[in-house]
Amino acid sequence: MSTTPPQAYIIAARRTALGRVGGLHRNRRLENLTAPVIEAALGDARIAAARVEEVYLGNSTAGGNPARVVALAAGLPETAAALTVDRQCGSGLDAILLAVRAVAEGGVEIAVAGGAESLSTAPWRIAKPKSLYQMPHFIGLEPAGTDATDEPQSFEASEWLARRLGLSRTAQDAYAAKSHLRATRAREARRFVGEIVPLRANADEARDESVVAADPGALAEATPFLPPDGTLTTANTSALHDGAAFVVVVSEAVWRELGEPPALRLVCAAAHGVAPAEEAAAPIAAVTKLFGRLHGFDRAAIRAIEMSESSAAQAIALADALGLDDNVLNADGGAVARGHPLGASGAVLVVRLFSRMVRTKDKEPPRHGVAVQGTIGGLGLAALLERA
User: What pLDDT shows up at residue 142?
Assistant: First the structure.
């Protein structure tokens, strides 16, 4: 395809189990969460840590340049350059795209890229009082420089989208129940084996903490965020989680040196902004822009789409807008079930695609897949990957 850039290959992809804030990873600092994942991915790739030249880390809460701390904690050489990327929920996907482009341009032979958030141990942000008589207050995860009232929160934007499209509470609860069911079945079928790196030798470390058997009664009884007639609840939206996900990206020369292992390649990517009040629709805009760049490409060939949705409404809206078959989007469950690790979310999507397209034992795995991510503030990212 004419859109294919010079070749860079994603040859390994790993992640942690995702844990509730204050839950599974409650005492793990960012470097403790990430180092084992990087080590496992490099082991899969059969690449010595000393050969890594660049590290790209998506993160939104640690501050400074945690990519450098993570690189050294993972045993990478002191000579390895390190860059932290912050596009909020899209940070991990952006980090991977930066690594792919750096390798494809020929300046780097081997890079590690992904995202990580340890919200349980992240520093708190406190706003400076405007006067001696004002008390300091905590700053949330809204875009920097805004007050909470300046832009709608994610659930408000999703509520607006649900109302505009006529998406009922029943439909959203049904999606949430299906997402949990899919994730539970995938775990029972051992489809996350080889994907999740247990940080300790116990069963809880090998499973996403929030994936549970869906309880229709609990879904129906959940209180709306915007009573009395709101449709979004804690049960049909994704909660913030701790987690990390990384890939290994190599040049074509290194890929051939390693015997041309199964891999993913980037075909095309797109980013698109919308009004903050329409934040929940940003993924649709990003995929639409991506598809507009694929001249002569049969979209029906895309049989795997991974999205870290902020709500069931956002996922339903994307599926409806693209006319997707039921088994294409989040076939093993989405963020409503497993959680949303903020800056790591987009990297988790690429790891999931690697499992569905490369690591799978299916006889006919998807050849093409899309990672799509919305971010706080009204931005959408989408990337089309193909199996080498």
Answer: 56
Question: Coil, helix or strand for 120?
Answer: coil
CB of 113 within 8 A of CB of 70?
no
Amino acid at 48: A
Catalytic residue among 89, 180, 241, 368: 89
Asked whether residue 334 is assigned to any structural domain, the reply reads yes
The answer to whether residue 340 is catalytic is yes
What token pair was written down for 19? 């844990």
| pLDDT for position 144 | 44
Residue 368 falls inside a structural domain: yes
Half-sphere exposure of 282 (CA within 13 A, CB side): 31
**pLDDT the model gives residue 6:** 61
What pLDDT was estimated at residue 214? 77
Determine the distance from the C-alpha atom of residue 186 to the mean position of all C-alpha atoms in its chain, rounded to a whole number: 18
What is the C-alpha to C-alpha distance for residues 328 and 299, in angstroms, rounded to an integer? 12
**How is residue 253 written in tokens?**
């020369």
Q: What is the dihedral of CA 290, 295, 301, 302, to 10 degrees?
A: 0
CATH number of the domain enclosing 322: 3.40.47.10
**Is residue 284 assigned to a domain?**
yes
- Among the listed residues 81, 68, 3, the one whose alpha carbon sits nearest the alpha carbon of residue 30: 68
> According to the model, what pLDDT value does residue 121 have?
95
Give the residue among 54, 176, 70, 149 at the shortest CA–CA distance from 115. 70
Which residues of the chain, if any, have pLDDT below 70?
Answer: 1-6, 141-153
Q: What domain range includes position 303? A: 266-387
Which among 241, 272, 340, 368 is annotated as catalytic? 340
322-341 per-residue burial string, b: 16 or more CB within 10 A, e: under 16: beeeeebbbbbbbbbbbbbb
295 is annotated as an active-site residue: no
List Cβ neighbours of 123 (8 Å cut-off, separation of 6 or more): 61, 62, 63
Q: Within a domain: residue 73?
A: no
The confidence score (pLDDT) of residue 1 equals 42
pLDDT in tens, 4-36: 556 999 999 999 999 999 999 999 999 999 999
